[in-house]
What we know:
Layout: H1 3-28, H2 34-74, H3 89-122, E1 126-131, E2 136-139, H4 141-147, H5 151-154, H6 159-162, H7 165-169, E3 174-179, E4 184-196, E5 199-208, H8 209-250, H9 259-288, E6 296-299, H10 300-310, E7 316-318, E8 325-328, H11 330-349, E9 356-363, E10 366-373, H12 399-409, E11 413-418, E12 425-432, E13 436-437
Parallel strand pairs: 7-9
Antiparallel strand pairs: 1-2, 1-5, 3-4, 4-5, 6-8, 8-13, 9-10, 10-12, 11-12
Helix pairs in contact: 1-2, 2-3, 8-9, 10-11, 11-12
Enzyme class: transferase
GO molecular function: ATP binding; protein histidine kinase activity
Pfam family, one: PAS_4
Amino acid sequence: MPAFERRVLLGGWLVALPALAALAIVLLTGRPGVELRWVLAGAALVLTAMIARWQHRRVVYPLYTLVGLLEALREGDYSLRGVSGGVLGEAIYDINALADRLQRERLQSEDSARLLGKTLASLDAAVFVFDGDLRLRLLNPAAQRLLTGERHALMGRRADELGLDALLAAPSAQVVRHVFPGRSGRFEIRHAPLRNEGRNGQLLVVNDVGRALREEERQAWQRLLRVLGHEVNNSLASIHSLAGTLASLVARDPLPDDWRDDTRGGLQVIGNRAESLARFLAGYSKLAALPPPQQRSVDLAERIAAVARLEQRLAVRVEDGPALSLQADPDQLEQALINLLRNAVEASLDGGKGEVVMRWRSEGERVLIEILDDGPGLPGSDNLFVPFFTTKPGGSGIGLALVRQIAEAHEGGVSLGAREGAPGAAAQLWLPLELARD
Length: 438
């Protein structure tokens, strides 16, 4: 029996003790007089009242403490604690443990709320949360900037009042044009249902893709202008210097004996630089004006064999592979293979044994074409696919960039890596399986 129940039972017996004692005296002494009976009755009444008052305090006061602790928990005050050694020791101990747990959970919830608030505040995407009636209940600073209003004025307004009902009705993960009070342009919208405390809601995320595209375009133009400026300035500087030298030479009177040879050599250098600059600009035009692929059925084995026969500097070994017929642009696919094969051959001739292998296979959801060489390996650079970047003397930096552009136009990709189990590099060109048929 718990201690509190034992104390309540003992107190009950103590309350009845004076009456029992008076009854025992009457029974043991026979029939006492009237005066004695009144004295016994009065004494029993007084003692019973005193003991009842004592028992009341022993039972009620711990319950008051218990009620106070429960009231504090109900009001959200988890700082109060009871003395666990009293008559309700086990109950007080459990309530103290519950208060500790609720306090920890509140701190964790507040930390999570602060972290969520900081995360939402740092997002460039606008976040809107609506309740079941499509009234705005939460928005982050990016959303507030789109709507150009005070937070207290926006909260509680319906989606149609804010001009957001069309975005909620549109399919999710779509890019749409929309005019907000604070900005207009192209936006990616995503929305999903929410449920909080048994009530439905809607989450709407709006991301300004126009700004990201403009930033990417600006960076691309900056990179392009740096490359073009570097190449053009190098060529024009040498042409300007040689033109000034030749002008000084022909202005001499009398002319030196070897002026014809010097003039002829200077003009040849100017012509070579002009021709190099023309090739560079032609390569850029070719890269920038790649037309969309005109796909038709292409026998992969036949196309690879034809590309291998074009290489005359060394014999290219073509391994047997499965019979595959690709839906691709044959000219663009051949150009991509030629560029990769040319790089592999030049790498093998540069310190290798002259071994180049072409092979293909179906791998998972794609068709993989590999070109292996035994050259010195890949240079230590992450810019191999950057247009106009080259590690070869006299290279244009167009080949690999053009290969990547062709591959991505066919919904595929290209990669360069170290060859497994042998020196050299491995170029991989793949197309998705839905573009290929066995």
